[in-house]
Amino acid sequence: MRYCDLKKKEVIYVKCGQKLGKVVDFEFDECTGKICKLIVSDRGCLPAWLCFEQDYVVPWCNIRQIGPDIVNVEL
Length: 75
Description:
Blueprint: H1 3-7, E1 10-13, E2 18-28, E3 35-41, E4 56-59, E5 63-66, E6 70-73
Parallel strand pairs: 1-6
Antiparallel strand pairs: 1-2, 2-3, 3-4, 5-6
């Protein structure tokens, strides 16, 4: 899966069905090249300095399912 495909997906918290936002970035392990964490934000198209919302950092082990349109996570 490419980053541009992952970036379009909504992130949903599976316990309560809450929409957390969209994937905006990720962190990866430089040695293995594997993704370690997803950075999720609900600020839309506004720049970071205009928003007061917090980004969510979701460790890769907390991702339960990646579907065609959404990513289910457990925090």
